[in-house]
Write a structure and sequence with these properties.
54% of the residues lie in helices and 11% in strands. It is an alpha+beta fold. It has a domain of 93 residues: Chitinase A, domain 3 (Roll), CATH 3.10.50. A four-stranded antiparallel sheet has the order 4-3-6-5, with helices on both faces. A two-stranded antiparallel sheet has the order 1-2. Helix 1 packs across helix 4 and helix 2 packs across helix 4. The longest helix is centred in the first third of the chain and has 29 residues. The radius of gyration is 26 Å and the shape is globular.
Length: 308
């Protein structure tokens, strides 16, 4: 999942609350009630601009671009496969209330991605070259210890026929992975969230091969590859590869520019006075452009003075 200028979490339940004039009680207490209007105002003060941006972006972009729900299903399935029993922990760690909120964020990110990459062209040769360098994902488990001597001790026990799961529970300091016998799920060769020393060593292994001790920023690992995905034919991966290459050419500036264009086209008008400035920063003229215009205006004035 890409984490651009959008928040990873949709969090706040402003959606569906009346904007004003609704005194229906949300909570009743002996000290007094909390009305929907009070809740709305409190949520608006704290999260209003963030949530309004997300709602408007989704509304505007959904009119121009479509996201296949099967794409979202596939992305969620990949995460579930990667994190296994730790999927709920992944949701909590990234501040998602539940899977539905994750799907909402994925959809919005896909919409933004489509808007920002619509003018990027990838050639057939680029796609084939990328395909040739793309390695299938591998499923990995590991035992993490603090020092090399302990890692050598664990490796020796494995070489003598020791059980990986039992040794992981006995030695490994990765308590999260230990709940699955040291299994950390599938990883990609270009995955950014994994220590590069660990990742590179893992991709040098064959299935069922156990590594020598590997040092990373977290300590010393004994790594085993338990499964390797089969590489799909080029034609089946073509659309996915094109999307990945296009996304790799994006940065925050390109995304902001795309959102600015879409919001301008939509001609939005914020009616709530407290949220009037929500899109001002996004829609503001580029300072560089403003400086150029000012310079041009100054030059025109100078030339006018010269002709008088």
């Amino acid at each position: 999942m890409k984490k651009w200028i959008l928040s990873l979490s949709l969090t706040v339940g402003v959606i569906g609350l009346a904007a004003c004039g609704n005194n229906e009680a949300v909570v009743k207490t002996e000290a007094g009630n909390i009305s929907k209007e009070e809740l709305y105002e409190a949520l608006k003060d704290k999260y209003g601009e963030q949530v309004l941006q997300q709602l408007v972006f989704e509304k505007v972009l959904s009119k121009e671009y479509k996201v296949d729900e099967k794409e979202i299903d596939s992305m969620v399935d990949d995460l579930k496969s990667e994190y296994g029993a730790q999927f709920e922990f992944f949701l909590m760690q990234n501040q998602f209330k539940d899977e539905n909120e994750l799907r909402q964020t994925m959809k919005l990110n896909q919409l933004v991605n489509k808007a920002a990459t619509k003018d990027i062209t990838i050639s057939e040769d680029e796609l084939k070259e990328y395909y040739d360098t793309k390695q299938p994902k591998i499923k990995v488990r590991h035992i993490l210890v603090e020092d090399e001597d302990t890692a050598k001790e664990v490796k020796a026990k494995l070489d003598e026929g020791g059980d990986f799961v039992e040794l992981a529970n006995e030695y490994s300091t990765d308590t999260v992975a230990n709940e699955n016998g040291g299994d950390i799920g599938f990883i990609a060769s270009d995955e950014s969230g994994i220590d590069p020393q660990f990742r590179d060593a893992a991709f040098e292994l064959d299935v069922n091969e156990v590594s020598a001790p590997v040092q990373s920023s977290f300590g010393w690992h004994i790594i085993e590859v338990t499964e390797k995905e089969e590489k799909k034919p080029f034609e089946e991966m073509k659309a996915e590869l094109e999307e990945e290459l296009k996304s790799s050419r994006l940065d925050a500036t390109a995304i902001q520019k795309a959102l600015k264009e879409e919001i301008k086209k939509a001609k939005i008008k914020v009616e709530d006075k407290d949220l009037k400035t929500t899109f001002d920063l996004l829609l503001a003229d580029d300072p560089a452009d403003t400086d150029t215009e000012s310079k041009d205006d100054t030059e025109k004035e100078d030339k006018t003075e010269e002709t008088k």
